Each structure stands twice: as C-alpha cells, then as structure tokens.
Amino acid sequence: MRRLAFYGLLLAMISSCAEQKPDESGLTVFRYNEFSNISSLDPAFAKDQASIWACNQIYNGLLQLDEDLNILPCIAHSWNIDTTGRIYTFFLRNDVFFHDHPAFPGGIGRKVTAHDFVYSLKRLQDPKLASPGIWVLNKLEKEDGEPAIAALNDTILQIRLKEPFSPFPGILTMIYCSVVPKEVVAEKGIEFRIHPTGTGPFRFKMWKENVKLVLVKNTGYFEKDSNQQRLPYLDAIAISFLIDKQAAFLEFIKGNLDFISGLDQSYKDELLTKDGHLKAGYQDKFMMMTEPFLNTEYVGMLVDSLTDAGRNSPLMNKKVRQAINYGIDRRKMIRYIRNNIGVPGLHGIIPPGLPAFDSSEVFFDYDPQKAQALIREAGYGPANPLPAITLHTTAEYTDIFKYMQHQLSSLGISVKIEVNPAATLMQLKAYSRINFFRASWIADYPDEENYLSLFVSTNAAPAGPNYTRYNNPVFDSLYKASQLVGDPVIRKDIYRQMNGLVMEDAPVIILYYDQVVRFSWTYIQNLGTNPLNMLNLKSVKKIQEE
C-alpha cells in the first residue's frame, strides 16, 4: 500500500509540473544533483564521477571522445604518430583561450600554447602534487627524470613513449590530461581546487561545498556547432548535493532537477516496469536513455596460495571456482533484481561497447548439474562438504548477493555475506586479506586493455588492481604483445584470446555489464549518453514550455 500511495503522489507531482516555466532570471540553467560531494575542481584530482562530470564542463585536453568513443581533435586540431609508434606530435589550434582571471594581464584570459600542455602534463607527474592520475603517463620516456614532453613551438607539442602503446591517444582524452594555466595555479596553490580556471564551455562562478556549485557560459568558447553557432547553448549549470537518492528523485519529479542518472532501489520500481521500461504515467513527461556502460561488475576470488587468505582456501581449486560460476542464473538476476537494466555477465571481463566484446562467446551460463559435477570432481560431497565461503561486499549490493547465496545453497555451496564499508572493503582487497569479494571495473579510457590489465601478474595487489593475484605467463605474454600491435583487428583477436584464458581459469564471477541509465524531462535536448557515462553539456539545449 505504501508503494501505491507513493506512486500516486509522484503522478500528482508530475501533473502539477506539466507546464515548465522559464527560470526567474530568464536564463537557461541546467540543474542536476550529485549524491556525493565534489572534493576538487582541479582536473589532476578528478578521480570520481562527481568530479569528472564537473571538470568536464570547465576544462579541455588535446583530444576528446564522441558519443561512440571515437577519438576526435579538441585543442589539438590534428596529430600524427611516427613509424616507431613511439613519438606523437600534436598540432594545436590558435584560437583557444583560458577563462578570464586576475592572474592574467588585464584579467583577460590568454591564448593556450603547447608550453601550457608541457606544464600541465608534467605537473600531473609531480610526486609532490600526489595526483591520483600520476599513473596515466607512465608509458612516457624519461629525460633527466622528467617525462619526455616538449613544445617545439607555441602550436606543436611532442610526446615520446618508452615503447609503442596503442591505447595512448585514449588516455589523453581523460580529464587528468586537461590543460591548466601556470599563472593561476601558482597564484592559488592548493586553493586552485576551489578556484578553477580552464578553457571549457563553462567557467566557474561559485561553489558552496556540499550545497551548490554554479558554472556559467564561457562566451568565448572555441567549439561551434554544424551551423557555426558558438557553443554552449545553456547559460549556466547548477549542481545541488542532496545525499538522499529518493529526495533527489522527488526534486526531479517536481521539476527542480532537469535530469537524474542511475537507478536506485528506492525508486526503481516506481519508475520502471519489471521489463525495464518507463511506466505509463511517466512516458509523456520523461525521456529514458540507456546504453552499455563500460563497467563490469564481478566477484573476485583470490588465487594466490602464498597469501594467508588464499592458503587452504577451497577457492584455490579451479573446479570449485568454475562450479560457483555455473551455479548462478545471471539472466534471472538481471530481470528480477535490476529490472532488466544491465546485460548478464556471460561473455567474460570485456563489456559491451568495446570492439573485442563477443556476444557469441558464452562462458558459464547457468547449469546447476554441471556445477554439482564439478564440485564432486573437486573432491567434495556429502562425506566431505565444501567449507563455507564468506563473501565481502558493500550494503548496496546485498540484494544481488542474497540471490546468489540462495542459488548456491541449493547446490551445497554455503556462502556467508559480510557487509563492509566501501573503504574497508577496498583495503581488504588491496592487501589480500579476503578471498571472495565484490568488485567492479569502470573504464578510464576506451580500450580493452583497461579490463585485461586486472589480470597481469605485475599488477598484483597492492601494487596494482589485480586483486585476485591471478598469474598466468601465457596471459602476460599476450598482454605484452597486444601493447605493441598497431592494427586494431589483430589487437582485438589477441584481446579475445586473453579473455578466454581468464575465463577458463575462473578467478572471477562476472555478474553483469552495467548500463548507463538517464532520465530527463522532455524539454531537454541533445543530452545523449555514452559508454563511459561522461556528462557532456556543451551541446545541450533546454527548450522551455509555454
């Protein structure tokens, strides 16, 4: 009854908000909410979605991605790679200016040059800055301890790598690699995080932390639409910071927010049918946008017997790991727990949206008989039951793991669930103190190498993100070969071989591939989606209804 009453209240709110009136200021302001605070507006610290979304409006880099993850020019209008695959030369536009700031002569933003990129990228590598993005330029050659980045003149930038690395242009599209002005950073110091200056379509106006952030149109922005109209179309962006997801959803329903992202348990059944479609009462007011998200949700299993958690663990037995994989009906899980938002994790670690994803290659589809046979082959049965396994997770995933627990119990596999705070779970994984844990991987840049690097032996935790501590020399050699291959067709084939090797050894249970889910009012145009779930507002229009 409470759910029906809530649903009725929402419908009443929609009816009362059907006529959208212009903001009192007469400006077109795009309003959205962040559930967590933004810690910094310095792109060198843009490590989470909240910071990345805001910084993406303020800054630009050499290159950028379109909605299909194609790499496009940005401040660099073109670039080339030498025959060795190691030397990248970028040719910069001469019409890009930093936002106005008192640190510049006359307070007027100056032109961006190649020297600004030398400063910005070397700053990112400065250990004193302690940027979480310090790793992104690890592939660069070093000169006297400095990364090999040089301005050949004001408009030509050259970067040299230690060896060929085909994903490198994708890395340069990351917010970490944005250009920043040396004068402003020098003047503001650590306060640059709250007084940012970039080149992007919007410039900083005000920020009251945990309350509101306002960005306003950069009237001198360099990009234009196909009709040569200067972007952006919006006058401003207003970001609120409500931590309660249901409260934010109600603000959206009332018309106080223009869009929401993601699907929370608190309102998913009020908004969507079990098949994942908008319910009838919302269809004429809201748009729902979905797309594969480069986010693979999985359960990791520690496979290193030299660790305390791995020693004597039944998960060291490959047949046990395979049995658990076969014992989970992922298709039913997606339908009944996630309202069909997501793709069952049947195809390995590489998610839809990347070229090497192969929907015809199915690993571990639900097969309880095969699971039971593997448990017997592993030496377990009524006389020698499989020891209980403790699965560590965070609170928001308990519904999925209770479902998994129930399914596995019918096979004689006992799973206990332990809920940990996110920071605690990360520490436990990083230092190999647990052997069965929830994890996920969201791509930093659009290349399968993101996901396959999780299983490279040299990336073993705590030094890297290989939390399972998987070690396969054949896999490692294929990974090395893939980095040296320029031909995308050959590289895709190598990636698929690597994916198959990992799934055969089963150090992970791939649960599902996530989806970008966005809801906006129908008066919002050109919002779009993309597999990295990046928020791009430079082309968005807000058409006010009379």
Labels describing this entry:
alpha+beta, 546 residues, four-stranded mixed β-sheet, disordered N terminus
Would you give an account of this structure?
There is one protein chain. The protein is an alpha+beta fold and 546 residues long. It is 26% helix and 20% strand. It has helices at 2-16, 49-58, 114-124, 168-171, 182-188, 245-253, 268-271, 318-326, 330-337, 368-377, 398-409, 422-430, 449-452, 473-483, 488-505; strands at 29-33, 63-65, 71-73, 76-81, 87-92, 142-143, 146-147, 149-153, 156-160, 202-208, 212-217, 236-240, 259-261, 286-301, 343-344, 389-393, 415-419, 436-442, 508-521, 524-525, 541-542. The strands form seven sheets. Strands 13, 14, 15, 18 and 19 form a five-stranded antiparallel beta sheet that branches. Strands 1-12-11-10 form a four-stranded mixed beta sheet, with no helix packed on it. The radius of gyration is 25 Å and the shape is globular. The relative contact order is 0.14. Residues 1-22 have low confidence and may be disordered.
